[in-house]
Every structure is written in C-alpha cells, then in structure tokens.
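Recap from last week: sequence in, structure out.
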Amino acid sequence: MSTITTARILLKNTWFLTNKGFEKGFVFLYGSKIEDTGSEVNPEYEFSELVYDFEYQAVITHGYSLLVDLVEYTTRQLGDIDLSVLTRSELKKLAEVGVVNAYTNGITLPVTITKYPEVVSDIARENSIRIGLIVERNTVVRNPYISLLEVDEGWIYYGDQKLIEYKDLTCKPGMLHDKCVLIDARGYGNLVTAIEETYRGNNPLLSYNKLTGLYRVLGVDNGFVEKGSASDLVLFDLRNPLKSAPVSDEKRLYNILVRAQQPDIVFIGGEIFYEFGENLAIPLVKIGEILKKIK
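Predicted structure tokens:
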C-alpha cells in the first residue's frame, strides 16, 4: 500500500467500541497502532497531520476478518468457471478487485482459499497489505505480508502454533457456533449482506467477536478499539442522512452495527484505505477484456 496519510491521525468527539463497551471521546492513531484513546484529548494531539471532529455523530469499531473470495470475486455465483486461461498478471488484476471489495466493506484482514495462492501473495507484497491465506502446509513461501494458515492432518497451524481443527475454523454467517473464529462469506454477492446475517438473531457482541476473532487467535490484538491495538478500524459517519440514528444509549450503538452498512472510512495499518466512497490505496484497472477470455 502506498503512503496515503501521514502517521498521526486524531479522531475526536466520537464513539468507539472497547472490550468494556462503547466509550465516548477520541481515538489517536500513530502508525500501525492505536497510540491512545480516552475522553479528554491531549492538546498535542490537536497538531496531528489529520484531525477529524465527528461531533459525537460517528461510531468506530475494529476492522473485521472474514473468509472471502479474492481472485475468484468477479466470478462468484456464476458456476464453475476456469480461470486457468488467464495469465498471472491478469489474475492479479482480478485479485486486486477482490481485495478492494473486502477493504471497502470493513474487512481489514481478508482471508482466502484459492487455487492461485501465489497471486494473492504477490498482491500482498506489492501493496504492503496483510492478507490471510489458508493452504496445505509447506506449499506457499512465507512473506511478511501474508498471514499463513496452514492445514496439516486436519489441524490449522500458524507458524509452529497449532490453532484449531480445520473443521471448526469457520462458520457461515447465519450459523455461528462456539468454536469458530472466522466467518465464511465466500459466494456472497455483497459482503455487507454476510455481515448483516452474522448479526441477525444473535447477541451483537457475540457476533462482533466472531467477526474479529481471527485477530485474537493470531495474537494481533483483542479485536477492540483500544490503546496498543492495530489501527485497522472502520468508521460510520452518522451525519450522513442515510445513516443517521439516535445514539443516546449503548444498545442503539450496537444496533448501528447490526444494520451493517458500508463504512464511511476504513483505516488499515493507520492509513486511510477508503474514505467517503473513494478507494485511496490500490488503483483498479478495467477488467472487461480479461473477463472476455473466460469461457
């Protein structure tokens, strides 16, 4: 990912979700970590390169991690389509579309299973972004930008750490179970729909924990907006008339998440990836000619 913003970002007069519930105040980002949060802004934070004042009409949560289509995103729900006729360069262009789709919907740690793991690895390395890959053990070369989840004899390994049985790793949005740590949203035409189904009929905090579960399992952070957590955040700006909602109590704040609308701002590693409808990080090219090659 190119440098989109400078290192210090102050988000003030907002609501943010911690492991104790929603709090009211500010979030201060410094690079890839949340440097500070609280109710009263340190005056020196006001000199940050970017300062946003949301007038207590915004909600910030940690970014999500879901199992999604990346290389195969553009051909989802179209049946069994052979992509082997495409070059590696063309497959990378398709994968970039899938990555941008994930990020703009608040999936800040997308995970994928694909026949083309090398393509995903290239995308992660060339854009300096973190992507999760589920592969058979010892089949993909590691690089610093890939969170490699390796399958070996029915178990998932992360490096030398034995994490969870493969059969328990994922659950579908409407079928949560205790063990799963990753929502399987492959095949969905719209990832917002998958997020909405994850929340539907369940305790919102339980659903949120499933949507951020992989961050905890991988030891990145606890999946909440707190000092020391990764600055992978999604923000909903309620000043937008189409997203407005009363924010007088915590229950209503959780209900804003249940409504599962596309975020207004997405931060990844402390950089702005997506802001008010604009993708700022990975330039996309037209892929119509590429798709014409697919039978």
